[in-house]
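Q: Could you fold this chain for me?
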Amino acid sequence: MDIHEYQAKEILAKYGVKIAEGGLAYSPEESVQRAREIEGNVWVVKAQIHSGARGKAGGIKICNTHDEVEEAAEELLGKNLITHQTGPAGKICSRVYIEAGTDIAKELYLCFLIDRSSERIVMVGSAQGGMEIEELAETNPGAVKKIYIEPAVGLQDFQAREMAFSLGLEATQLIHAVRTIKGCYRALRDLDASMLEINPLVITGSGELIILDAKMSFDDNALFRRHEIAELRDKTQGDPREVAAADHGLSYVGLDGDIGCMINGAGLAMATMDMIKLAGGEPANFLDVGGGASAERTEKAFRLVLADKGVKAMLVNIFAGINRCDWIAEGVVHAVRNIDMSVPLVVRLSGTNVEEGQRIIAESGLPIIMAGTLAEAADKVVRARNEVVAEENKGK
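A: Sure. Below is the predicted structure, expressed as C-alpha cells.
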C-alpha cells in the first residue's frame, strides 16, 4: 500500500526527522490560507498523487505570491498527471501540499527497502540526489552506496555514520545525519513498511538536513495490525478494479490486454498469462481467487473480470488441490447464470474431482468452452477473442 508525500512526512516527523513546514489543501482558497500560515515569501505547491517524477509532469510549482499559490492550486486540482510511473492513464490530483520554500545547497538521496534476496534491509544512498536512482545506478554505479542491515540486530550507529560520510556530509552535520537516518529506519521497522525513499534529502544554506520529498510503501499483509496506517489508504489513487478486488478479499492486478483471467494460485496465474501470450493473446488481468472459491466468491470474481469493458474473452483455469473441481464447476455455473456473459468463456479444470467438475459444466447447457490442458485453453481463448474482434470489425 502506498501513501501520499504529506502522510509520509507526518510519520517521519514523529520519528524526529526534520521536514519543511507545510499544510494540506483541497481547494485554491485553502491553499492560500495554508500559505498565509507558513512563514516566508516562497512556497511550493505540490500535487499529491501516488507517483514519482511529479516535477517532470508539471505537478510541482514554485510560487512567490499568494496569487501565484492560488493559480497553481487551481491548475493542479482535478488535473490528470501522467508520469512514467503512472502509465498513460495518469492519476487525478485531488489535493495539494503547500510547503515552505527551502534554501537548497545540495540534494542527496536516501532509501530503505526490503531486499528479499539477502533477507535483509538495504540502505541505499547517493550524494547525487534529485534524479532517478535507477538511471544513476546504470550510468554511474559508483555514486550509489549500499549498506545491508540485519533485521535481528537493527541499524547500528557506525552504519549510519558510514552512510553519512558517503553522502559527503561534514563532521558538524554528523549528529543530525545519524539522527535522521536512524529515525527513517525506525519508521520503516516499526510500521511494517517495505520501502521508504527520500529524494531529495537536502542540505540547506545554513547546513541543516531536511526531507523535501518522501515516499512510503507498506506490506499489505501487515495492515491488519497497523490500523493507523491502513486508514491512510487513498482508494482514488488505485486501479478501481484492484480496489474493488481488495475489498472482496481477492488478489487482482489490472493489465493492458483483453483476455480476462480467473485462476487459483499466483504461480499458475503467471504460467497462464505466459501461455496466453505464447498463443498470441494479451491478458487483461491477474486474478487469483485463492483456495476457497465458493459459488459467491466465484461470482464476485466473474463480476470483477467482466467489469473491465475491454475484455473480449475470459479464461477460467483452476488446479484443484485444497479446493475441488466440482465446487469450482458449481461456482462457475452459478456465476454464468447470474451474470450477463457477453463474452466467450473457456474453462480448464484439473485436480481433485475433475471428472465430476467437467460433468457439471457439460450438463449445465451453458455455452462454456471446455479445455483439457493449459495450452489448449490458451489457444481456445485466443481464438474466441479473435472471433469477437473480427465480428466487431465487421460491424464497423
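A (continued): The chain has a mean pLDDT of 90.
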